[in-house]
Amino acid sequence: MAKIKLKYKRVVLKLTGETFGKENGKGVSITSYVNIAKKIAKIKKDSDIELAIVVGGGNIFRGRENGEENFSKAIADNMGMLGTIINGLGLQEALEDIGVPARTMTAIKMDAVAEQFILKRALRHFQKGRVLIFAGGTGNPFFTTDSAAALRACEINADLIVKATNVDGVYDKDPHTNKDAKLYKKISYREALEKDLNIMDGTAFALCSDQHKPIIVFNIDKIGDISKAFKGEQFGTLVC
After folding, report:
1. DSSP state of 130
2. How many Cβ atoms are within 10 Å of 100's Cβ, its own excluded?
3. In terms of CB atoms within 10 Å, which of 112, 157, 171, 218 comes out highest?
4. Integer Cα distance of 59 and 53 in angstroms
5. Which of 26, 37, 130 has its CA nearest to residue 90?
6. For strand 183-184 and strand 186-187, is the pairing parallel, antiparallel, or unpaired?
7. What are the residue ranges spanned by the domains of the chain?
8. 3-state SS string for 83-105
9. How confident is the model over 125-147, as pLDDT tens digits?
10. Which of 12, 6, 2 is nearest to 154 (CA)?
11. Whole-angstrom Cα distance, residue 16 to residue 211?
C-alpha cells in the first residue's frame, strides 16, 4: 500500500487519560492501551509520519479535581503527572507488543522507569522510526498536559498538534447540552480567544498562537480517519 502524501510530517497527538480508562474513563484498562496501540500502528503504516504522543493521567488521578479538601495543589499536580507516566508505559508496552517501536520520555527524572526528555535524544528516536510518548507533563505543577503538548510540539518543531476529544471538533457552545451548537471547520487563534472557546488551557493556547502551531481538534472515535488531517483534508476543526 502506497504511503499518503503528507502536508504535516511531524505530529504531536494529545490523548486524555480517560482514553486509557475503563468504560467510565476511570482506572487502568490494558484493553484500552491495546486498542489505542492498534489504531496508532495503522496510522504509522498508512502515513509514515513522525509521531509523538502526549498522554494525560485523568483516568488515574486529576490534580485539578482534588475538591475542597485541605490538600496541596502542587502535590496533587505531581500525583497527576505520575499518573501520566503509568499511561505512557502502558501504551509503550502495547505498541511494542504489536511490533511498533516506541519510547516513553518523561519530564520527571526516573531513570529506572523511562528516559528523561532530552531534545536531541528525542529527535534521534524519530530518525530510528520510533513513536515517542511524552509523559510527566511539563515536570512542574500548575501546568496541564495541554501545556505539555504545546511545549513539546515547539521543542521538537512539530508541524501540527492534534487533540483528541469526545466531540467532533470546536463548537460555539457545548454540543452535549445545545442541539443547535455550531461546529467550526476552521477558526483563527484570535477568533477562538475572542469567543472564549477554551480549545486548550490559556498557557498552551498562547504558546501555539505565538509559535504558529496549527491545532486540529477531533473526536477520538474517529481516530481511524486521522490520516485525512495529515494530508490537509477537512477533519475536525483546524485552528490556525
Report:
1. P
2. 21
3. 218
4. 17
5. 37
6. unpaired
7. 10-239
8. HHHHHHHHHHHHHHHCCCCEEEE
9. 999 999 999 999 999 999 999 99
10. 12
11. 23
- The fold adopted by the segment(s) 10-239 is Carbamate kinase (3.40.1160)
Which H, E and C letters describe 11-78, residue by residue? EEEEECHHHHCCCCCCCCCHHHHHHHHHHHHHHHHHHCCEEEEEECCCCCCCHHHCCCCCCCHHHHHH
Grid cell in block for residue 236:
475536525
> What is the per-residue pLDDT for 131?
97
Which residues touch 198 (CB under 8 Å, ≥6 apart)? none
Q: When comparing pLDDT for 70 and 187, which is higher? A: 187
What residues have CB less than 8 Å from 210, skipping those under 6 apart? none
Nearest to 190 by CA among 172, 170, 210, 173: 210
Q: Are 184 and 170 in contact (CB under 8 A)?
A: yes
What is the model's pTM? 0.93
Q: What are phi and psi of 105, to 5 degrees?
A: -120, 130
- Rounded Cα gap, residues 176 and 166, in angstroms: 10
Give the angle 106-111-114 at the CA atoms, nearest 5°.
Answer: 45
